[in-house]
Amino acid sequence: FMVREPGCTDPLLGRPFALFDIVTDDNGEPTGIDFGYVVIGKLTGRMVDWKAGDEVEIWGPLGNGFPDTPAGHLVMVAGGIGQTPFLAVAREALGLQQYGIPPRPHVSPAPQLTLCYGVRSSDYLAGIDEFSIPGLNIRISTDDGSHGHHGLVTELLEELYNDDNGPTAVFTCGPEPMMKAVSAVAAQHETPCWASLETPMACGFGICFSCVTRVRIDGGDWDYRRTCVEGPVFRAEQLHW
Fold it and tell me: Is the pTM of this model over 0.85?
């Protein structure tokens, strides 16, 4: 989704946000959408002052999403604020919520689900309580050792391959160096991997070409793809990291 504050000229353009979850009423009917964010720029700096009743411009959903949840053991690897899209993935996979119009089909039985979430310190754990869902295994790493595993989130992924029921598919979102490392681990173990890019966007419709990323094409060459239209989710081996 692209989000913009009406009447605001700085920033003038919208900013991209991943869906965290949908808000429902007592009957389970959608009444709103929920975004997660960290204050890192002008728009997010203004968002902290928004209050109920303020008008916001939102257009979307845009681009693609993660594929239907595969059977087996799905591991979601997130860094920073990259855990945002995985709450909906987990809730859908476990049959707790349906998304889309018409609703995406539920995969039965639900796969084994693990979230590996890495941040700099415990102060940066964002929305983690929302992931306390029966059926979802959560593993956390911090760079400073203040919570969970002391080290890199990719080390948590490597540990899972030592289990009898190792990962059969990997979804990842977060800083590009982390996703590149996750992709390398998955490739080493011949596990399919999809990455959701956090590329800055301007229009959201694919007309400005400000969000292009390089992807590999047939013949060993590469070309550009628009993250807001052809992405933001790509097969990791396609990306020209």
Answer: yes
